[in-house]
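Changelog note: in this version the structure field was regenerated for every chain. One regenerated record is shown below for reference.
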Amino acid sequence: MNQESGIDRGVKISLGLTFIVCLVATYWFRNYTQDDALIYYRYIRNALEGEGLVYNPGERFNGLTSPLYSYLSLLVSWATNDITQSQIWLGGVGLFLTCLVMAGLFRPLPLVAATLPLMLATSRYFYSYFGLETSWFLFLAALAILLYQKNKYGLLGVACACLLLVRGESLFLVLILAGRHFLEHRPFPRPRLFIIPAVILAGHYTFTYWYYGKFLPSTLAAKIYQGKSGLWGAWPCFLQIADPVKKLFDGSPVLIVGIVVTGLVGTAGFISGIKNRNFLTLLAFTVACTLFYVFLNIPNYPWYFSVHCLLFYTGAAFGLDFLYKLVTPISARFRFPIHRLGYGLLVVVLTGMQLYLIYGYVGRHGGGWRHYVVIGQWLEQHTPPDAQVACSEIGHIGWYSKRKIIDIVGLVNHHNARLIGERKLGHWLKYYQPDYILIHNPPWLYEQWTPQLVAAGLYAPDARFDFPGFSLFARRTAKVLGRTGP
């Protein structure tokens, strides 16, 4: 067996192990749901039940951040007749495809191609956001770079069109690839290759404007208004990364060594990877997304760091490759495979620690956000079907309560996001009169107007509701299972 075939075999073994890890870890996470993912789920449920692609029946409001992922989720849920499980496994498929494409992207560097898929597959970060578009966003971004590398411009156009419909900020990657095209003096693609991408985009935007009355999802404006309000942190709140980093490693002391080792290896990787054009493309895309989030003061929601995590693990894989080559001459001098043993040990330690983190996290949080689940179930049992409930973090509560939801921060309702941006807290009550208002206790910044409603005699605490950390207020004329409220 020659060296090249041995290298190919190593990459294939790595991808086989990656498939097994993705399969097992996805199974571990099968009952975990991210709160925002359940917003998608409710849109899908309403569509499958004949209510239309809406969050609240009868209200055509586009709160779908990722249109293409929504269509794909709807199709898979319809085929499987199971919304929650189909979305988790859809995330697992997207993650494995990302690993597969990243291996192909860096195939000329066999150690990177073999190491990177395993590091991605053992990262808890990606599993935590199954049900969102994260893994498919990364898959299509990596696929676009790979198709560009292979000069597959017909497929590249389709991939870019799909990528734009998965996450809007992917426009930066399309522009970066276009810039790279002209800098490398490649010939201009044949005009007919633009037809299919144009049809895909035109079809979507025509439907969106006809159905919702707007071309773009309203969630983008909502996040911009959140940043404008300053309630999620002073500018630049996106760079306050302590919480996302803590969530990435779950704050476990056992993983401190892993963080240090990965950081050092990643630093070496960035030094060596800076010469690789695909790595530079990924780096430029990460920088562009960061500048976009920072400029608009977008809150640092953890799933916005997906491309950063992809770059981080790519740098770590480059670092292992760099260290392997650095130690190889020493191994030759001592006639002992120090480089192979060291490389294998680092890979086992890094991936093993991450697997430990996944397993431990599922053991503690495998059921998802239980406090919101039980509150949603309580609302379904103790409020009439036509009740309107106002709250923030609407995913689990909206899914389990099956009530009309008024989102305080405006992710699925008109007016509220703009009023948050203008810091006119509570002014949304001019447009909505919910039967119940659920807030945190103590109230979050944009919930602190509630005592004024109580003082004015409009709402009163619901004595039946007893959940630590939360308060429920009922409108004076609200119905409680067919009776007039307090």
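Spot check on this record: Residues 101 and 143 are 6 Å apart (CA to CA). The chain is about 60% helix and 5% strand.
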